[in-house]
Amino acid sequence: MLIFVGFIIVALSVFGGFSMSGGHLGPLYQPMEILIIVGAAVGAFIAGNNGKAIKATLRIASRLRRTGKYDKSIYMDLMALQYKLLSKMRREGAIGIEKDIENPAESPLFSEHPHIVRDPMVMGFTTDYLRLMVSGSMDPLELDELMTHEIEAFEHEARIPIDALNKVGDGLPAFGIIAAVLGVVKALGAADAGVSEIGLMVAQALVGTFMGILLAYGFVNPLASRIERQVREAVKILQCIRVTLLASLNGYAPQLAVEFGRKALDTAERPTFDELEEHVRPAKAGA
Description:
The chain is an all-alpha fold. Helices cover 80% and strands 0% of the residues. The protein has 13 helices and no strands. The model has no long low-confidence stretch (mean pLDDT 87).
């Protein structure tokens, strides 16, 4: 939602300020200039990326839109769920959570945290490594290396659209200049036209430079920055899970393992020790 609010503010500030200063918006509407700039940018995007990168860029909005909801309440739910799973594993042995992780939809533990269950990335990462812990054949160092490798692979794949959009954003001002040059060439080619008509054509040509810069720094590059921050949010929640599971695997009690995970969070979303203790307390009482 904030990305659209930002886009609206950009548009209102630029076009509203121009209009309030006495300018007329009509001459800024140059469909052919927009066609040249946007068409060239799309063509360069297709030429500079393979099918995987193009599909990843088109999918990234739906894939990462949930990361905007990774706030303190989500992290507290995640750590409460991890505490319950690790406590049950400690009481009943690793086999005690096998049914829960094999069928989370019917698990009483998972059903208490619907926001976590609806996140396939978090659920997949958590249940996959809990299965490996249940198997009992993984050394903590090997599991750490495997989790780190998977997180790095996810981050690398998720950054493909960022790189693609940044390159498009960097090229848009140049495409705007191309559109402006073509417009000037057209104006100079009309030697028999009047001075006022040539001046109008030159002014219309300069709209290309304006549109290229506006699209680059007002829309495309901010979108790439937003996706980059979403990727960081996704990586952060995976790191929280990784640290918690490793602490448990190294013999720490569930309460301390969850504390390890809490420390892995940024201070803006990190709950205090007392907040997390209060949130996890019902699980302790149940245990």
